[in-house]
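Sanity check

After download, print the first record. It should look like this:
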Amino acid sequence: MENNRTEMHEEEQQLQSTLAIAKEQLDQAQKALREKEQDIIEAKRQVRENTTHGVTNLYHSDDFEAIVELSQCMNPVEESISDYEEEERRIRRLEKIIERPYFARIDFRFEEDPQAEHIYIGRSSLTEKKAREIYVYDWRSPIAGVFYRCALGKAFYEAPGGIVEGELQRKRQYEIADSVLKFYFDADMTINDEFLRLLLSKNTSPQMKAIVETIQKEQDIVIRNMESDLLMVQGVAGSGKTSIALHRAAYLMYQGLQAKLSANSILILSPNSVFEEYISNVLPELGEENVNSVTFDDILCKILQGYRIQTRNDFWEHMMGDEPYSSIARKSMEFKMSESFRNMLDAFLLEIPLRWIDFHDIHYNGSLIISKEQLREWVLRRPHISLGTRLSQLEDYVIELIFGTGRKHGDGEQRNLIRQEIREFTQLNIIELYGKIFRKSSVTENDIPDNIRKYTRENLSSGLLFYDDATAAAYLYLKTYGNTGYRHIRQVVIDEAQDYYSLQYEIFRLLFTNAKFTVLGDINQTLVKPEKISLYETIRQILNKEKSDLIILEKSFRCTNEILNFSLRFIDDAPQIKSFNRTGESPQVLTSGSYEELLKLIIQEIAVCREKGLESICLICKTAKLSDRLYEDLKQKTEIRQVKNGNAEGLKGTFVMPVYMSKGLEFDGVIVCDADMGAHCSEEDKKLLYVECTRALHRLSLICSSPSSSSTPMS
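Expected structure tokens:
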């Protein structure tokens, strides 16, 4: 990385020139911000002086004209505030540019041009509008794709006006920090391995960081894909799937003018709230607004409002523990998420108006207006319309039969009384109906195993809606009433795709009717269920998009060679993973003869990690039950935190968590606290060890509770 003095001088001059432009624009932006602040103050003063009603009297006034007047006067205030916020965003972007204006340069000679142009690439663009000159190109710009995808020689990129061809004569990368050029180097086909290895050898950060400097060709193909309605990515552990998803979201927002995409029209489906916190800094770091992020728990609560619903983490804990109900919980989940049970739900939907709605005759002023048989027949005549819509239309139909059309017909109180009477059978209780499936419905009485039927009845009577039942009931609700809450969503990113079942993908199809999908997963990192590559064909069939593609990422960047090779022994059909070839320590396999010895070994391993300068050290357990116990027994002996759902607080220091909370995360050091076969006794459980081990960047230790080799999965 030693650089020629003349070239180094030229690069430093280029940097100073770029910084000067950015600083000048920053000064202008700060001046404009102060002026916009005065505009807001002046606009508010005019509201006070020019309106006859103050804001405090708005909600107490019956004068419609006064409300309109106040609303009109507030428009300039809102516009001034919007301009102010936009200027604030511009200032933040320029401050980041000044800190690190660019990270790469390509020398690209366009066809028929005698000389190559120097194209500098950064996280944000830096332009001079008056001179129409671009000093730094945004990494998402079409020409920046040459840096990620092309080797030296003939090259091309796809611009809005078509294919642009030329010759790539140089690819150069820079390390710039706090406005200072540290070094630069030239590369060929891919990002320089030495530079990437340097970055990967460092400690991980408490939150995920942007990776624009090190995006690989295969990753860039996923990020810039604009053609697929359904883009699926099967990526091995450490292949950067989540980073790719977030950078893809940033790229889609950059392309927003053409694709009509904004932050509000993109949704990320995250596995849990800890993961949401972990990824929350990536898009702001790229100068973009954070997109909406939800968990499947959030979706269930929004659909089934008013019910106490078991969280996915609690349900996993229930299935993964050694409780008597763990086996039946797994069987129940597998059964209720299956295609056969979905067919039962669809058949039950057809049966609801036939058997499960208690229609009754409607009378008014002593006369029969419409009989219950006629009401049922009216609903059954329109099977192409959702049942909820038909029942709502039935209310209006009966009201019109009695009072005629228009609000003037009939007394308002009388109309309301009749509507309330009708709603006794048009307002459906979905959970109550769902429960009938497991009792005496003719559609399902012979198709549900007795143990699952009994288990479900007990759960439904507990006052807590279990996760599997909530999922099935949500499907039933959406098929009955439809959904409009997510019509504005145009792109859905689903991470950890392998942990969702087919019925959940049916729910995604019903929810996000106007959206394209980016689906990222790893079939070898499933929790409590086996999965194969055919998962993606199932997803394709359910989501049913016009153009779908599957991309496979086989290169892992996270773990050292030693940790990765060790982790692969827990997968029967190990994938052909291409390691980045970073070496490190061999994983440590330790044994303890007692719980007290286990605690002692954990404390020793924590001390070793700290001595080596590792900043994030995670104790991973199969269940939260053991995680709770270890935390209570270790907190007096060493500094440690417990990570629970909704309690991320930045992943730095030493902490303990169950494996299902660690999905998608990475740590400098990992200590697997229950690595013996007593805790991981099934084929699915062995994959948990693969998940646990591949969270580690630099050091991995596994502690077994018995010295007997036959009791450990490492034998």
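If your output differs, re-run the checksum step. Summary of this record's structure: Residues 708-712 have pLDDT under 50 and may be disordered.
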